[in-house]
Amino acid sequence: MKRIQALREMQWLLEEKYHGKLTREAKKDIARLSRFAGSRIARQRGEHIDYVIGFVDFLGCKIDLSQKPFIPRPETEFWVKGAVEYIKSKIRDTKYKIRVLDLFAGSGCIGVAILKHVSQAHVDFGEKDKKLLSQIRLNAKKNGIEKKRYKVVQSNIFSNIKGKYDYIFANPPYIAESRKNKVQASVLKHEPQEALFAGKDGLDSIRPFLNQAKGFLAPNGRIYLEFDSPQKKEIEKLLNRYEYSSWQFFKDQFGKWRWVKIVYNRGYGSCERTPRRSARRSRRF
């Protein structure tokens, strides 16, 4: 069964990256995959096929991975799709423009998807890692996004961010050090650690983000924040502490609490609504 999976991945690589042509470079990439196909431990430590192919699809966008950013996950794609649909439903005037911030941008997949599907959007990308700034620009270019519609800023959370936004999207590092044993060996070996882990409880980035984010929201602005399922109760406490107006937690397609939509308006109390959905195994780790 594992051999069949390996062969499927090799076929996918050949078709997606090389359009079915077995070139010299294609043979090298196939060798990179087959090198780890012999045993379970080797496969776990092997390079992710998305890095070998060099790109991944995210909501119809071709996201280049040449600088080895954190690979976009299906769980993220799931909630971003819902966010895009929500934004489009709220914009009735085609001349109306919205300001969006994609923070902890990484590959830029979230902001690029917003730009591609919401023509009225202008997106600022905030990313700490200097080498990923060019990765974000490349992904915008590959998806036909005009330069005037976005800006890329090197920023440690909000350190270099200015202005107010209608929507803030954040997929920060959030895995707790105590849950490191839950992460696949291949992820630990090949994906950027700074995009994965955030202190003992995984909240080292989320705490300052929630403390500061309300200062960057336009009136009736919204925050979409991804987190790890066990962090839900602690995030509720933070939302109360920082006096956000209202929020709603959601589960991903695998039945795990995965993101929260937040509103901040001065003078309102906080409340919480949690829709219940069937539980299935998450593919995050």
Keywords:
285 residues, alpha/beta, Rossmann fold, 8-stranded mixed beta sheet, 35% helix, disordered C terminus
Query: What is the CATH architecture term of the largest domain?
Result: 3-Layer(aba) Sandwich
Rough shape?
globular
Instruction: Describe the sheet with the most strands.
Output: 8 strands, mixed
Structural class: alpha/beta
User: In angstroms, what is the radius of gyration?
Assistant: 20 Å
Which CATH class of the largest domain?
A: Alpha Beta
* Fraction of residues in H or I helices: 25-40%
Read across the widest sheet, the strand sequence of neighbours is 5-4-3-6-7-9-8-10
Textual characterization of the structure:
- With 285 residues, the chain is of the alpha/beta class.
- It folds into two domains: 1-53, no CATH class; 56-273, Vaccinia Virus protein VP39 (Rossmann fold), CATH 3.40.50.
- Helices cover 35% and strands 20% of the residues.
- The protein has ten helices and ten strands.
- The protein has an eight-stranded mixed β-sheet, with helices on both faces. Strands 1-2 form a two-stranded antiparallel sheet.
- α1 (2-18) packs antiparallel against α2.
- Mean pLDDT is 82; it is low at 38-45 and 267-285.
Question: What is the gist of this entry?
Answer:
By secondary structure, the chain is of the alpha/beta class. The chain has helices spanning 2-18, 24-34, 40-45, 49-53, 74-90, 109-117, 131-142, 185-190, 206-213, 232-241, and strands at 55-58, 61-64, 98-103, 121-127, 150-154, 165-170, 217-226, 246-251, 257-263, 272-273.
